[in-house]
Amino acid sequence: MATNPYFNHHGKNTADQRLAENLMIESIKTYGIDVNYCPRTLVKEDLLLGEDALSEYNSAHTIEMYIKTIDGFEGEGDFVAKFGLQINDQITFTVARRRWAELGLVGDGRETAPKEGDIIYFPLTNALFQVLFVEDESVFYQTGGLQVYDLVCEMFTYSDQKLNTGIEDIDKIERLQAYSLDFTMDTGSGDYTVEEIVYQGESLEAATVQGEVASWGSTTKILNLINMTGNFSGTVNIIGDSSGASYSVTSFNAQDSTSASAGDNLAIEQEADSIIDFTEG
Question: DSSP letters along 197-240, please?
Fold first, then answer.
């Protein structure tokens, strides 16, 4: 016997298809959660390894997604490895295709589907998850068409990427975990502002040394910088591009990062100095 002639599940853009899609979207809006989707911008891609250590995330887009992972985080979980604690929690999100298209994202095929490498801010755990794989046939064709994408994601490991999304809970991760240095300032005037660019030299355009302000203590006169290029000097004033603040430098240690996740350069050197005598020529 043929299929029911009163239901046309397998036609293109039929009333039945639109109804199924509307019900799917309504279900996600009812049982899902609002997340922030942050597309990745490639800065200097390694075409051999397919990686980009200088990636940037410069925008965030709110969209509802359904948490398909219902029994807790998947993946390898948390364990202690050779280099310390590893957190490899995974989660799967479901997003409606039509709602995705309505975001209006462009570039690298995002017009039609999410992209691997992008990140999702999950507000329930205040964590970032990176898209590992986009499954475009999760529901297959039981309803006559494909209404959703499944995004398989893993806990994002921050490694000095730029986060300028406009969402404070996301952007502060960069200020807290990026490689940073503390500069103890001396005489000068003005107050640096967070996220402004500072430099040493005649002007920002001519400067070969730059950095981004992560924090500034007007009473302690400690300036914390991230995203630095070039080698800062202890004899030249550090000038704020937007604030106009300018102070001379009292001291800083280029090997002593204030980031908890940064390398132990200073500790390693101090330990090595106790073993090997580097004073001999």
Answer: EEEESS-TTT-SEEEEEEEEETTTTEEEEEEEES---SSS-EEE
Contacts of 110 (CB under 8 A, 6+ apart): 39
- Whole-number Å distance between alpha carbons of 260 and 58: 24
| Segment 40-66, tens digit of pLDDT | 998 887 777 777 777 899 999 999 999
Six token digits for residue 215: 């924090």
**CA angle (122, 30, 28) in 5-degree steps:** 65
Amino acid at the residue 43: V
pTM of the full structure = 0.78
Vertex 127 angle, CA 124 and 133, to 5°:
105
E strands in 230-272: 238-240, 246-252
Which residues, other chains included, contact 249 with Cβ-Cβ below 8 Å and sequence gap of 6+? 183, 184, 185, 186, 232, 233, 234, 235, 236, 237, 238
Phi and psi torsions of 99, nearest 5°: -65, -35
DSSP string across 36-63: EEE--B-SS-BTTTTB-TT-EE---EEE
Q: List the beta bridge partners of residue 77.
A: 88
Phi, psi angle pair for 246, to nearest 5°: -145, 125
Which secondary structure element, helix H or strand E, spans residue 119, and what is its range? strand 119-122
